[in-house]
Design a protein that fits this description.
Blueprint: H1 13-30, H2 99-107, E1 154-155, E2 159-167, E3 171-178, E4 183-191, H3 197-210, E5 218-224, E6 227-233, E7 238-240, H4 241-244, H5 252-271, E8 284-287, E9 292-294, H6 299-303, H7 311-331, E10 333-334, E11 344-345, H8 355-358, H9 364-374, H10 388-397, H11 446-485, H12 503-507, E12 512-513, E13 517-521, E14 546-547, E15 564-583, E16 588-595, H13 597-600, E17 611-619, E18 621-641, E19 643-644, E20 650-651, E21 653-660
Parallel strand pairs: 10-11
Antiparallel strand pairs: 1-2, 2-3, 3-4, 4-6, 5-6, 7-8, 8-9, 12-21, 13-15, 14-21, 15-18, 15-21, 16-17, 16-18, 19-20
Length: about 650
């Protein structure tokens, strides 16, 4: 055609029969049949030029994923080559149709036709899509290539394409920039004339209404002219599960956290009538804070042409996919014969084997959980898990797997010098008591004694450090008090019965300070918390509040993150004598911190170590009163303990903050 789009025009009943036989041959080849036809022939179409189609390479595994090379576009069409680097550690690669999907689309296509003549050779199709859209009376082309775009093109007068992440025969995925909000986004592009276009837009809109932060958010879905595009959130500081497993299996604690968070999210989506249907290691992303987020819910299945399934089939498909993810995390093997996602497949003799039978040292409870979710007939006659809700309940019944405690650093033992030994002989030796039998070498607790000595040295060093720090602080306060009370010593001393206050107390009256701005402080760089409600913390209204994002567990330095903060900007350096914080929803634990010189230049990105702790409080309110005013422009309210909301999630709620000088 003139625009480079391929078109297939059926001119006779024989050609239609040929297409039917070609699809059957393609399915037989994908299913592993030994004889799928020795050759293919190109039919010459009347009224249309000859078009050569190169079939894509398929590589099927048990989860239905295949990879394919896109057909070459028509002459004159610009080609968008995928970039060598994605900029986001997770790539947007989802696989084309599997054997089951091809059969489902054949059943959903046009009415059954007569069998083809076996003597006539079959022509292999390039895009086996239905030829008739049930909601449209027009017949759309059987093959419609993905729209061709280049880096720098604008989409919708707003999104500037930066880098092509992946491209299939029917759609392409890009990293782009939202010129209006100046942020990175992901964009899927598809021709609006394609028969999947309406389903893709509908799936994107339904995913956007889900509103669950555990899923990567769909930001926009537009049908504009000859183009359909879906815009989603971009997570630059995340890694997908396939990349996390590149160096080996996960520790039991990390695998437990992954399957628990993913199962909770998928179960919540199914309760709202949503299913993923394409849950692969590429779709599960881990952020720097340890939170797992799921990409492509509903949209990936629509882009790949997966037919809609019933509620029971969709729940079983997503549950089996979660079981495959846990299997791969525990064994570093893909639970199907083919090698996928940089993981080696299982030999045929190990099919339906539990993870602890594939790799030694696997956690027994997690191994049983993976087998029950993945297999219809788990080993040892265990009961299979068929829905995400059942999987969530099974995880809740397991003993919690906690992160192992970090080991104490090994300090080298100092040389032993016996200063009390007397030279009673030219070659003095230790004389053992004949009445006490010496312990065997294997039973002497030398390692435990060394460990106790190291621990005592650590405790002593810590005590000396604390003592020296206390002495330094006391000296600084004493010198500061002399500096403030120096002018007062020139006046006559008050009598013993005088109750006049000290010079500092008589000259200092707290003055309310105006907070110019409230900022979200997140030293891990994983995004702003409660950015839409930050102003509520300084608006003077106790009924409004700043709310953080939710967390599954309480803050802990050894679990996820140590805390999150609210940074107050006074506009200019001012003396601060007190800070009052009112919480909502229950008790909180918070620290008041002020930045040092290195943090003051860029306070929102400075590490937490560059902030000095000046107070720590717990309860429904925190009243920080400083012994001596501190001159600073920024004040950080660092939350280290959150309240537990009725839904079982941990969140921080700051109703109002007042600063006085």
């Amino acid at each position: 055609m003139a625009d480079g789009t391929k078109a297939v025009v059926d001119t006779s009943a024989a050609d239609a029969a040929t297409d039917e036989a070609a699809l059957a041959a393609a399915i037989d080849e994908l299913a592993g049949s030994e004889d799928a036809g020795d050759s293919t022939s190109a039919d010459t179409r009347k009224g249309a030029g000859a078009a050569a189609a190169t079939p894509g390479r398929t590589d099927e595994d048990g989860d239905g994923d295949v990879t394919a090379d896109a057909d070459a576009p028509g002459d004159g069409a610009p080609v968008a080559e995928p970039g060598s680097a994605t900029g986001e550690e997770t790539s947007e690669i989802t696989a084309p149709l599997s054997v089951q999907e091809l059969r489902a689309e054949l059943a959903a296509g046009s009415p059954r036709k007569k069998p083809a003549d076996p003597a006539r050779p079959a022509r292999r199709p390039t895009d086996p899509q239905p030829t008739v859209d049930p909601r449209d009376t027009a017949t759309l082309p059987r093959t419609l290539p993905a729209p061709q775009r280049r880096s720098g093109d604008m989409i919708g007068h707003r999104y500037r394409l930066e880098e092509c992440i992946s491209q299939t025969e029917t759609f392409s995925s890009w990293r782009a920039v939202d010129e209006k909000l100046r942020r990175a986004v992901g964009v899927h592009l598809m021709a609006s004339g394609h028969q999947r276009a309406r389903k893709v837009v509908a799936a994107a809109k339904s995913a956007a209404l889900l509103g669950d932060p555990r899923f990567v958010q769909v930001l926009d879905a537009v049908h504009e002219g000859e183009l359909v595009y879906v815009v989603r959130e971009w997570l630059p500081h995340s890694s997908d599960l396939a990349k996390l497993l590149a160096n080996g299996p996960m520790e039991p604690h990390e695998a437990y956290q992954m399957v628990r968070q993913v199962a909770d999210a998928v179960a919540a989506a199914h309760r709202r009538g949503q299913a993923h249907l394409r849950l692969t290691p590429r779709c599960v992303l881990r952020t720097d804070s340890g939170q797992y987020r799921i990409n492509g819910i509903a949209v990936d299945a629509a882009l790949r042409g997966l037919p809609a399934e019933g509620a029971e089939e969709a729940q079983r498909a997503d549950t089996r996919a979660i079981g495959a993810l846990l299997f791969a995390a525990l064994t570093h093997r893909w639970p199907y014969p083919e090698d996928r996602y940089d993981l080696q497949g299982l030999p045929k003799g190990l099919q339906n084997a539990a993870p602890d039978q594939v790799r030694a040292g696997v956690h027994k409870g997690l191994s049983e959980l993976a087998a029950r979710a993945l297999f219809d007939q788990p080993p040892h006659h265990a009961q299979p898990i068929t829905t995400p809700e059942e999987l969530v309940r099974a995880i809740a019944q397991m003993p919690r797997i906690r992160q192992p405690e970090p080991e104490l650093p090994a300090f080298p033992a100092p040389p032993r010098h016996n200063t009390h030994a007397l030279p009673t002989a030219p070659n003095p030796t230790r004389v053992a008591d004949a009445t006490v039998a010496p312990l065997p070498a294997s039973s002497r607790p030398a390692s435990s004694r060394r460990a106790r000595r190291r621990l005592r040295r650590v405790v002593k060093a810590t005590a000396w450090t604390v003592a020296l720090g206390a002495i330094g602080v006391a000296s600084w306060q004493f010198v500061d008090s002399l500096r403030h009370t120096g002018p007062a010593t020139a006046s006559p001393l008050p009598s013993a019965t005088s109750t006049a206050p000290s010079p500092q107390a008589s000259t200092h009256n707290p003055v309310p300070l105006t907070v110019k701005d409230a900022l979200s402080y997140n030293p891990l760089g994983e995004g702003l918390e409660g950015k839409d409600s930050l102003a509520n913390a300084i608006d003077g209204k106790i009924e409004t509040q700043w709310t953080t994002q939710w967390y599954e567990d309480q803050f802990s330095p050894s679990l996820y993150k140590a805390g999150t903060g609210l940074l107050l900007d006074l506009g200019s350096p001012q003396p601060v004598s007190s800070v009052n914080v009112q919480f909502a929803g229950g008790g909180h634990t918070a620290e008041l911190r002020v930045p040092n010189a290195s943090a003051a230049a860029n306070p929102t990105r400075a590490p937490l170590a560059d902030y000095t702790v000046v107070g720590k409080k717990s309860g429904n309110a925190a009243d920080f009163t400083l012994d001596n005013p501190v001159t600073t422009r920024y004040v950080l309210v660092w939350l280290t303990g959150l309240t537990k909301d009725p839904d079982g999630k941990y969140r921080g709620h700051v109703a109002e903050v007042k600063v006085s000088g």
